[in-house]
Design a protein that fits this description.
alpha/beta, Rossmann fold, eight-stranded mixed sheet
């Protein structure tokens, strides 16, 4: 029996759930640059909108594709590729502040006044910043497998400091037009309704360069939202991944406790549960989103 090819080994060793991949388009964000967006209608024309922000090293679709159709039974569902990920905006530097402003610019393009913002891992950090920078555009938050800060011990400080230093040596890659074109071509060349979910997922994953991951990691290491979490004044749900070895569950719970009135939605899963354990993740994140939307009137009354 011959050796398995990397493709066959991936198929045998990694479970990937099948789900319909919604069509998308490239969108210009008000002079900021272009990104790839999907916009899935909700059950009615006036359904609320939820914007889904993806994890580090992924794309909007790769993080959220199993959850889009279930969420669309209650919400209009929007995804986008964030800066330096997939077909997201290319810039000389990666900034979480810019990522949040990009979301606000997308709302302008789609003519949306305010939305529920849901973020997974890095996307949860951008969601926090979205409220901080554009509070009038945020009706509620769903924060999954994420944290308010990262450099809490010596090992983490050494890791993020080392990552920032290492990225200086590969800075020229950020301007590599060849790498950018290759990533975009790889994504465009594949149908958005693939018959082989593993091939599609690998194309999505490869559309983000190692440089982008390093840039984003360094930015995450500088993130610290704890000083202002207590001022969040919209309904918030925190999905806690209970077997997470990347962001400890205790830190996720601490995030929830720092946000007034936040609800906790437990999920017995690891950091990649959004895809690799989608059967457990999807019902929990739908519950969290529905809870946030149902509570918005209570928060509005409290502010009046």
């Amino acid at each position: 029996m011959g050796l398995l090819s990397p493709r066959d080994l991936l198929r045998r060793s990694v479970y990937m759930p099948w789900a319909r991949i919604p069509p998308g388009r490239t969108v210009e964000l008000g002079g900021r640059g272009t990104t790839y967006v999907t916009d899935t209608p909700g059950p009615t024309p006036d359904a609320p909108t939820i914007v889904l922000l993806h994890a580090l090293g992924c794309t909007g679709l790769l993080t959220w594709y199993p959850a889009i159709e279930p969420l669309s039974r209650r919400f209009r569902v929007v995804t986008l590729d964030q800066r330096w990920h997939g077909q997201g905006i290319r810039s000389d530097e990666f900034s979480l502040y810019d990522c949040a402003d990009d979301v606000a610019a997308l709302l302008d393009v789609l003519e949306l006044e305010s939305v529920v913002v849901a973020g997974y891992s890095m996307g949860g950090v951008v969601a926090q910043r979205m409220w901080r920078q554009h509070p009038d555009r945020v009706q509620g938050l769903v924060l999954a497998a994420t944290s308010d800060r990262f450099q809490l011990n010596l090992a983490e400080r050494a890791f993020f400091t080392g990552m920032g230093t290492a990225m200086l040596g590969t800075r020229s890659l950020s301007r590599s037009r060849t790498a950018v074109r290759a990533a975009r071509t790889a994504v465009r060349a594949l149908s958005l309704e693939p018959s082989d979910i593993h091939d599609w997922a690998m194309h999505e994953f490869r559309s983000t360069s190692p440089w982008a991951v390093g840039q984003a990691l360094a930015a995450l290491g500088r993130h610290h939202s704890r000083p202002w979490l207590g001022r969040i004044d919209v309904p918030t749900a925190v999905v806690v991944t209970g077997r997470d070895h990347i962001i400890p569950p205790a830190r996720q719970v601490a995030l929830a406790r720092a946000i007034p009135g936040a609800t906790v939605h437990d999920l017995e899963g690891g950091h990649a549960a959004c895809v690799l354990e989608a059967e457990r993740f999807v019902p929990v994140v739908v519950e969290a989103a529905v809870t946030v939307w149902a509570r918005r009137r209570d928060f509005a009354r409290g502010a009046s």
